[in-house]
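Example (one chain per record):
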Amino acid sequence: MSDIRNRLSALQRRLDELQAAVGDDNPRATELIAALGDDLNRLSADMAGEAVTTEDKADANPETLEQEGDALKCPRCTLRGLYAVKGRVRERAEGAGREALYHCWSCGYEVWRPSSVSNGI
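Predicted structure:
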């Protein structure tokens, strides 16, 4: 499973590189790249067992994310680079409470985790 996730992450990085290379010069290519990115996001979400939509990941690339709070240990790369993303909170699907988007600044892994008042999110 981890190998597949790593491959999907690598594909997403390659799509990001392709988007940067294409720029805004070719709207059709940009549209196709965005569609492929959405497909990869759905595959990743299906593997993780959670429904991550485009709205959930709005502006969720490392260049636009802001770190919030102390770093946690990332379950993918095992480095302490997993931070809550400032301003990215949603209601929990399985009950009361809220959850925050966490992003690893080392490997790019993202996960929704329960949010607590103490971490300021």
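Caption: Residues 14 and 65 are 19 Å apart (CA to CA).
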